[in-house]
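Worked example

This section walks through a single chain of length 296. The input is the sequence exactly as stored; nothing has been trimmed or padded.
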Amino acid sequence: MKLAVVLLMTVSAWAQTSTPAASAGAKPSFDRAAFESSIRYYDLVVAGVTMKVGDPKPSRSLPGFSEVSVHLALGNDARDELYYIASDGKTVIPAEAGSVPAFNITRNPFQINLDRLILDNQPSFGPANAPVTIVEFGDLECPSCRAEAPILRNLLPMFYPNKVRVVFKDFPLESIHPWARAASDAARCVFHQNAAAFWKIYDWFYDTQDEIMPENLTSKVLEWAGKNGIDTAQLGRCIETKATDAEVTRNLNEAHAFGLKGTPTLFVNGRKIGGLDFQQLQQVIDAELSHQAKAH
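Given that input, the structure is written out below as tokens.
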């Protein structure tokens, strides 16, 4: 019963931005091909994996929904997944709900995340009209973010020229990283003075991460600024008055609203994933590009 309550609350929240479902208990109008196509995209099921979609059966745990079993197989490996489908035949909930707990098989399953991500006034590189946008919630003191940075900064532009845009949003983990928030404040001060220079200080923070402490952060940032054409007096005032801290707070609030726990967390065209190695990230990007090509 607890599962039913949680899932019903999820659908209720999702349905506020969706078309109304048909009456509870009605037999769903089931488009098997559309369902399979949507699930393959949602779960990144590669073409070589066979998928057997079962018939909808009334759910005992979620009134008004039917259960659809999906059997996946590749060679000797196999697994079974379960989904709930509403009586409208479109609204789907994975039994193990992730970052997008409910979606419509006739739409982008990650649209709910795309609608919630605020990208205005955020540092970015890559074309604004790129087919793939990666939003990184990052922490400039985070070792895992430092490991991810060369992938985002160097490999993506090399392998996907003009196809990927990267946006940075602050998520300093203050409980474990004592200077992360101050670094976000300072980096955003640089961003407002020179948007392109943000990525220089982004790289610099990761390159010099081991040398920075709360006590010397400002002096080191100002020293860096003097060597990189940044007005140090203006930057110093911005840092001292914490002029950008409210912007960092907004990004933090957004991260918490998404339920994010660690960094780096990436959203690839709205699909939430953790930090990945380059090969894994390639798979996600290639899936996005392939999906868009099929849609057109």
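What to look for: Confidence is low (pLDDT under 50) at residues 1-25.
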